[in-house]
Amino acid sequence: MATAVIRKRARASYASGTRDKLSEKVYKDLKRDIIRGVHAPGQALTEKDLARRYRSSRTPVREAALRLQEARLLRIVPNRGYFVSQITLQELNDVYEFRTAVECAAAELAARKAIDSALLEELADWAETSYRTDSLEKYMEFIEGDTRFHVGIARLSRNQMLVRAVAEARSLMERIMYAVVDIHYYGEVPIQEHRDIIKAIREHDPQAARKRMYDHIVQSKHKVLRLTSPSTTRTTRR
User: Fold this and answer.
1) Is residue 12 part of a domain?
2) I want to staple 194 with a disulfide (CB 3.0 to 4.6 A). Which of 41, 42, 117, 127 is the partner?
3) The pTM is what?
4) Reduced to 3 states, what is the DSSP secondary structure of residue 82?
C-alpha cells in the first residue's frame, strides 16, 4: 500500500513538473511573438488556436496568458478571449516614465556599490553593439545587446527588485523597437551614450551615472515620440 501511494505521488509530481515546464515554454514563446509583432497589437487570440500553435493543452496557455496580462502585453476579456495589447501614446509615456524611475536608480546604485569588474567589462562590450539598417537580423541582435546592457546595469546595482523592474521595462521597450521597424525606422545607435554611462559607473560617480542614464532615456523617448505624429510617419514610409 505504501509503495502504491509513493508511486502515485511521484506520478503526480512528475505531471505537475512537466506542466510547469510547458507553461513556462508557452509563456516565453508567446511573449517573444507578441514583442516581435508576430501577433499584431489588437489581434484577437483564442486558447484553442494558441494551444495548437504552441503545441500544448489549454491550461498552459491560460497560465501564460495570465502572466502576460500582468506584463501588460495581453488583455483578457471574459467570454471573448485574449487580445494583444495596443501600443498607445499613453503606453509609450508610461514605459519611459517607468524606465526613468528604475533605470536611473539602478545606474546610481551601480556607481555607489563595489563593482563587478567582469560584468562591467561585458557591458562595455555590449555598449558597442551596432547594426546595419539593411539587415533586420543585425537589428534584432542590436535589440538583444541593448537589453543585455540595460539589464546588466541593474545587475550591477545588486538590487533584485530593480533587476526585475528593468527586465519588465525592457520587454515593453523591445516591443516598441520592433514596432518602429514596420515604418522603416531604426533610430541612431546610442554607442556614445552607453559609453558615458559605463564611464560614470567606473569612476564611481553616482550623480553622473544617474544623469547619463536619464539623458539617454529622454533622448530615446524624444526619437520615438516624434514617430507618433502622422506627418513623421508618412515621411518615414517614403
Assistant:
1) no
2) 127
3) 0.80
4) strand
